[in-house]
Amino acid sequence: RTYEIATIPGDGIGVDVTVEACKVLDAAASRHGFALRWTEFDYSCERYSETGAMMPGDGVATLSAFDAILLGAVGFPGVPDHVSLWGLLIPLRRAFSQYVNLRPVRLLPGTTSVLAGREADELEMVIVRENSEGEYSTLGGRHNEGQPGEFALQESVFTRVGVERIIRYAFELARTRSRRVCSATKSNGIIHTMPFWDEIFESVSADYPDVAAEQCHIDALAARMVQQPDRLDVVVASNLFGDILSDLAAAVTGGLGMAPSGNINPERTRPSMFEAVHGSAPDIAGQGIANPVAQILASAMMLEHLGETEAARSVDAAVEKVLTEGRVATPDLGGRATTEQLGSAVADAV
Ligand code: NAI
Ligand code: MG
């Protein structure tokens, strides 16, 4: 069969790594007997500079016809980050009800953790980030500008439906893994939304007596992720906390160049969207040296979501093989290979 995939390479290294992911997936598709039809969209900061919008008015409607979306990254100097994020990524996540942001990390063979001495199996976890509400909200504003009493207000929105479904997702996921869930909270400092989150976590956990449930303040959890990562497996967190924890989790495993992510619509009523955890990295954009592994692993998550599990495994295995051999590595992995060379090595391994 043929899957219809929308690609949005976006900005900076998003463009470089997406080309490589498509190349690897084409190799996997031809080996496993299906096809991927790619349709590329130029939604990006460049488009914003030319037209005043990250995507056209019918962008959501157009994308909704696809089986899945592969996104590079958006954001580039000259366009404020809140414009690029709120002009594309956040509207798509919300329009397509991609309320789970799934961010698995593990220490891949052939790479070393910044946490010296840690074994690979101690460094395997998944951040389940709430992806549709929470702290990322437009409610609030600036007041008394220019006056001594100037202030800014930013409101968070936590709905019972929204919190319950993400926590339930985490418990279901834990049943397929270690049967341990840790919830990120901060109910000592944030006195309305976080106690609400904690209460719902406790009530959902009662439905999963076979899963060990634990709550941890976000600050202590950050320290634990560095000092005792083996004590964590499934970590469920609000939009902001999950965003921060996933960069941290990536950093303690193989770095941002290795961490994939899926914006998942679990009911499969709308397309899900796959991307690396990292951004457009303007500091290395245009040099051809970005690590494409994160985007390749994200595209393997896309195959898995489409039901092509064997093809997804073959992509993961190809990444592991190339990293284990270690001959083709980008600068962040201590090598001298280009993005294109590492992508081609993985495609060949597939
Ligand atoms: P970033 O993730 O783009 O970069 C952080 C650091 O990690 C940089 O030093 C970069 O060179 C390095 N890095 C990231 N990915 C790498 C890779 N594949 N290979 C090698 N090194 C890599 O985060 P930053 O700098 O905070 O944001 C840059 C832009 O990206 C901003 O405009 C931001 O808003 C946007 N952004 C977009 C995201 C998205 O589209 N999902 C997510 C995060 C940031
Ligand atoms: Mg982030």
TrEMBL record:
- Say which domain of life the source belongs to: Bacteria
Question: Does the record's keyword annotation contain Metal-binding?
Answer: yes
Query: What's its catalytic activity?
Result: (R)-malate + NAD(+) = pyruvate + CO2 + NADH
> SUPFAM superfamilies in the record, alphabetically?
Isocitrate/Isopropylmalate dehydrogenase-like
Q: Which Pfam families does the record match to this protein?
A: Iso_dh
| Enzyme Commission numbers on file | 1.1.1.83
Q: Taking every annotated instance into account, which residue ranges of this chain make up the domain Isopropylmalate dehydrogenase-like? A: 4-346
The cofactors required by this protein are: Mg(2+); Mn(2+)
Recite the UniProt keywords alphabetically.
Answer: Manganese, Metal-binding, NAD, Oxidoreductase
Name the InterPro entries on file. Answer: ICDH/IPMDH (IPR050501), IsoCit/isopropylmalate_DH_CS (IPR019818), IsoPropMal-DH-like_dom (IPR024084), TTC_DH (IPR011829)
Q: Which GO terms describe its molecular function?
A: D-malate dehydrogenase (decarboxylating) (NAD+) activity; magnesium ion binding; NAD binding
Q: Where is coiled-coil annotated?
A: none
Which protein family is it in?
Belongs to the isocitrate and isopropylmalate dehydrogenases family.
Name used for this protein in its record:
D-malate dehydrogenase (decarboxylating)
